[in-house]
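user: can you give me the structure for this one chain? tokens are fine.
assistant: on it. calling the predictor now.
[tool input]
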Amino acid sequence: MNDGAIDVVEFLLTARVYDDERDLDENDLPPRYRSVFWTGGDGDDPGGIQRPLSVTNSTARAATGVDRPWDAVSDLMFTEREEFSGTISLTQPEMATEWFLERADDERLAGNPTLAYRFEDETGVDYEAAREANRPIQADRVWIDSLLEEYFDDEDEQEMLELVDIRAPEEIEMTLDDLVLTDDQEAEINKIVKAIEHREYLAQIGLREIGKLLFVGPPGTGKTSTARALAQDLDLPFVEVKLSMITSQYLGETAKNVEKVFEVAKRLSPCILFMDEFDFVAKTRASDEHAAIKRAVNTLLKSIDDISLIQDDVLLIGATNHPDQLDAAAWRRFDEIVNFPKPDRGMRADILRVITRAMDIEEFDPDGIAELTEGLTGSDLRMVLREAVLDALTEERTTLTQADLEAAVEDFEERDTLKNMDMIEGDHDALVAGGDIGGSDHDHAHDH
């Protein structure tokens, strides 16, 4: 049997069962299958998955990762390929079923609700559990794109998309396991995960004012990374808004666009709506900004009041590097404040262990490096490791030493000192740019 045969047969059986069982819907198909069967909409039709499902070499390759799908199953007695259309099908479904069930373990079936539905009696795999564990179609990139195309169908509305960055869970590389969090951060995240799981119960008892978090801390301490990782772990679309973009000259009617952001989040629900640079709200309210911008900020505050995790399935997370600039109107919008301090020595050592997992370092002593890096954030530590790796590569080495890391710490501190020097004349921006290569506006402090 070819290595990919069981994957291709699973795909063929899934397509056949899905065609036969009309009670099944898109959320019964594994995400990797949905993406290849999705058809774009036209006009008022947002698109979707239409029966019958057609299996070809190209769809099977995309869904299974098997390079030559037909070759993988061509020697099996129950498969055939139509030369003209290229369609691959099962000639004897019962034989294919018997062949597949002899080779498939429970884990494979539990990852495919369509087959769990058909073979629940024979295997004991729980269909409802398989469906519950399956990522909902609303979190798929193809579904998100279809909704956006339907919802922003004229040029003026297209401008609004400059205000938001929408990511599907599959596009977020980090998980919460990749982060080093404080006990308090873990406790707050666990509480919100439980709230999401028990939304119906919270609604029943009338506890609706929950699900608006404010992440507070210096740049580079992991606020954005944690919000994204939460989206990945919970299989939720991640809608990120840069509030300073509200002032963009290209955004036209700013208050209307702010409302659109919240409408999009509700349409994508369940999802996470992440609002970075939240201090911008208070700064704008206290300044002499244009009336249209102030109106947009007031609209923003009202929209925050009107959105709910319990009613709208939207988890709202705000983030700020400057909590001192927030006014009472901003603070009272959030039911939980989560502090993101600079990491202490123990956390720095843990961060170093996480971000060096894939590196080869001789006599690595993370505690020793943590001792040398007081005041550095997780993002800073990533930069230190990056410099150590690049310096080693210039010497044609892929194995690092503790001395490489110590030298990189020293270089980082020198560069940091130069960035903060006031006495240097000339183009400060050029100096900062040179010292900040590879940096980011986002806090990706504690990821790897």
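assistant: here you go. The domain at 345-435 is CATH 1.10.8.60 (Helicase, Ruva Protein; domain 3). The longest helix spans residues 402-419.
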